[in-house]
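Fold it.
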Amino acid sequence: MKDYSCATKCTWCDGCGDYGIWTAMKRALVELRLLPWQVLLCYDVGCHGNMSDKLQGYRFHGLHGRVIPFAAGAKLANMRVPVIAFGGDGASFSEGVGHLVHGIRSNYPITFILHNNANYGLTLGQASSLTWQGQPMNVSPNGIPEQTLPSMDFVFSLEPTFVARGFSGNIPQLTEMFKAAIEHQRYGFAFVDVLQACPTYNHFATHEYFLERCYDANAEGHDPSDLKKARELATADTSKRIATGILYQRTDQPSFYDRLVPRKDRTTQAVDEVVKVDVSGLWEGFV
């Protein structure tokens, strides 16, 4: 764990779910025996993105809603490197929802961790696409006029190959889910929805709320290969019980890279094929 330790102090609010995700990810990487220089961590903009300078390793802090295409490009350039992307519910289901759609649809071989606190925490608590109905938020004191986007039903409609859901307060379970999601990269896109508290701006989905309702579906015998049951668990009413764990996984679908015909017989990675080319001759007609 000390290899991932960083001198930069954490600045999240007391009780923020980012602490749990930060800790679980470090544990997962260590238990997978991945050193900081062997993995690429990509962050979107938001409170979660401030994690980019809170641990050692190769880290990229991108533009709002655009972390998935960057992560996908980095992975396709060098399939030897595990690539993990992090995004908030605001960036991922509003500005960047198109990238999320094609990330899952294309089955890019990356892991995506959703920091789901149902608001834009970094910009002081505005409502996101996943904010619950009837909840007063900054800029929308009467609640949001739109319908809350049914995120899990949306994800399942895109025919994913890996879907998990966890709670930032259950670090041991999150660690195991992150490990499984990282290992799934050999098969494609792994989507992990992490429910987390935002103690400053989200006063409806609190740490206590999740603690009382979340249960481990795998421990209760859920079979992740059962698509119908997985979707039922993921989209069931969460006001009483919330199913967590690896909800769905299939390994019989080729990833985006495996479908690329020009790469079929290549033994090198794209990054190995980068060469310098003299293009000075191309400018002669413009001089």
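Residues 2-286 form a domain with the Rossmann fold fold (CATH 3.40.50.970).
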